[in-house]
Amino acid sequence: MGTLLGNYRNDPFKRALVTVGLPVALQHFIQTALNLIDTIMIGRVSKEALAAVGLANQVFFLMTLLAFGINSGVSVYIAQFWGKKDISSIRKTMGVGLVGGILVGFIFLLAGFLFPVQVLELFLKEQTVVQIGSDYLRIVSLSYVFTTVTMMYSVASRGVEQARLPMVVSSLSILVNTFLNWILIFGMLGMPAMGAKGAAIATLIARIFEFTLLIILIYKTDNVLAARLSDLIHFSRAFVMRIMKTALPVLINEGFWALGTVMYTMSMARINSDAVASFQVMMAVYRFFEVAFIGLGNACQVVIGNRIGAGEEHLAMEYGKKFIRFTLITCMITSVLLILMAPTIASLFKVPFNVQRDAIYMMRIVAVYNFPKMLNLLFIVGILRGGGDTLFAMIIETLSVWGIGVPIAFAGAMFFHWPSYVVVGAFMIEEVVKSTLGGYRFYSKKWIRNIVDHI
User: How far from chain centre, in Å, is Cα 354?
Assistant: First the structure.
């Protein structure tokens, strides 16, 4: 590793891996590891609690991906503006992202706080699960606006190659969350055992802590992102429309992808609550293995955006190929590990044997699809968005998920009555289609676009 990343300051590819990829991967590694512990904690309460929290978190998942769509769209501009060292435009772009993110967070807050039962009954009608989940959702929804603001500052930090700060803050927040989970779920240190409600309270406190600490550290230091309110809102309608031309396809992309992923969970709910629990176990574990690729995707977007913004378009293709090779090697390692470790990891969850068994099958099926799945993350989040080709990314994502994945999932669950793990294996065919289209676009070079020269 030392040889691979040696003299990284003079090599944009290596510098992006060190300053963006590694911090983001480490942040998500810590987050996913502790989220896995949280899931295990909830699973030890009951399988109903595990299914309830899993379903309630689909609302949070949808909200964060819509906010991420806005943030990721504006981050394309932040990365290219950073290549030009245009600080004023970076801050105006952040302002656009903050307004959009806060609006999304507030809408989901209202839905989760005022109508939790109705929202959860869209997934499942089992009243025990719905009641537990609605209590959890009403509390945790209060954290949504804090989360969207934190996300914007974190994404902007990565765009200007300062990913270490959000990594440290997020890691501390997750540690706080896990410690409070231990206290409030099980009733430690003299506190009453509150189960899923305790997990919700812990999450709310941790999100507020994360927001507060990140803002304080950014504004107490000489940070590029320490913008005054006037800097953030000093944008014209023409500026917003120019950014939205690129950001809107990302928002639509993330929104429809998130809805599609929620639909996959809903297809599991059409089978039974055991299928939902197995799916939640698999997803909790798989997110642990995909952290390296999240780091690669973010690093790829930054390095490609920076090179294009600096007028070095010829390097974008070269670095894209390097990231693809890096992804292939990492996929081979993580797939083998997931296949071998699946039984041991599944045994950590206090769930019935059939739930563990199906979760193991799901993990191994997803491991087989690992390369096209992670290649898609690199193509869409890293290469195509970094190059400003957000419309094509939206098209291949949306058509693959909604034209292939979702119909197969519901057909398998409701009409063919396949086992849950067979449904998972079938709907993931969309990843193969998507990666084929993404690869064709990459080698066509049509994705390389400088979107900040005339803004």
Answer: 29
Q: Residue 49 corresponds to which amino acid?
A: A
Is 8 buried (19+), middle (13-18) or exposed (0-12) by CB count in 10 A? Answer: middle
**DSSP letters along 382-437, please?**
IIIHHTT-HHHHHHHHHHHIIIIIHHHHHIIIIIS---HHHHHHHHTHHHHHHHHH
- Classified as helix, coil or strand, 447 is coil
Backbone angles phi, psi at 147, to 5 degrees: -65, -40
**Alpha-carbon gap, residue 263 to 265, rounded angstroms:** 5
Phi-psi map region of 154: left, alpha, beta (phi>0 left; psi -120 to 50 alpha): alpha
- CA 60, 66, 70 angle in degrees (round to 5)? 140
Dihedrals φ, ψ of 376, to 5°?
-65, -40
- What are the residues whose beta carbons fall under 8 Å from the beta carbon of 44, sequence distance 6 or more? 350
Contact criterion met (CB below 8 Å) for 411 and 356: no
Closest by CA to 108, choosing from 65, 49, 152, is: 65
Phi, psi dihedrals of residue 135, rounded to the nearest 5° = -60, -40
Q: How far apart are CA 278 and CA 120, in angstroms?
A: 18
Cα–Cα distance for residue pair 22/167, rounded to 1 Å: 10
Whether the CB-CB separation of 29 and 332 falls below 8 Å is answered with: no
Is residue 144 a contact partner of residue 103, using CB atoms and an 8 Å limit? no
Tokens representing 85? 């060292």
The three-point CA angle 176-179-182 to 5° equals: 150
User: pLDDT digits over 103-113, tens only?
Assistant: 999 999 999 99
Separation CA 273–CA 130 (nearest Å)? 11
Please give the single-letter amino acid code of residue 187: G
Amino acid letter, residue 152: M
Torsion sign, CA atoms 435, 440, 445, 446: negative
Tell me the whole-structure pTM to 2 decimals: 0.72
Using 50 as the pLDDT threshold, list the residues of the chain that sit under it: 1-5
237-282 pLDDT, tens digit per residue, is: 888 888 778 778 887 887 788 788 889 988 998 998 889 889 988 9
Which secondary-structure segment (H or E) carries 340? helix 313-346
Instruction: Please compute Rg for the chain using Cα positions.
Output: 21
d(CA 451, CA 243): 9
User: Is there a contact between 423 and 267 (Cβ–Cβ < 8 Å)?
Assistant: yes
CA distance 403 to 177: 38
b/e per residue 160-188 (b: at least 16 CB within 10 A): bbbbbbbbbbbbbbbebbbebbbbbbeee
